[in-house]
Amino acid sequence: MTQRNSEIVRVGVIxxxxxxxxxxxxxxxxxxxxxxxxxxVGDPEILEELSRIxxxxxxxxxxxxxxxxxxxxxxxxxxxxxxxxxxxxxLSDLDLSPRAAGIAAVVSGHSHVAVQSTKDGVxxxxxxxxxxxxxxxxxxxxxxxxxxxxxxxEIVELKI
Length: 160
Description:
The chain is mostly beta strands.
């Protein structure tokens, strides 16, 4: 799509970079209207580079330490075109009912396993890990598209 439609929002989602921002990830995230980093950033320069691509929402992961990381919240909730997204690092720390709160998507990281599922009308989305390869898991990022309030998602495996 070459023209931005105000009813369509493209959200690039990345997590668990652990200090490594691959050029393949930044290439895939290019063209996003907004970005989410779901924690375990590992290096504040990653956030600087991502924020040059698009406005960025970030949460702190369990490996994010130091003064720069203390500025990151543990959770974030925001709206894009009146569609609410809740972001946290570890899904097991979810302490609210997304459906009751009117949340359309819950974005998390931590497990390094890419997952996209829907429960009670809420998308639960983990883009997997874009940082150093763990075990034999693929290196992935995610994309969320909001069209007229409807949330769609996809997992993108990076060719590295």
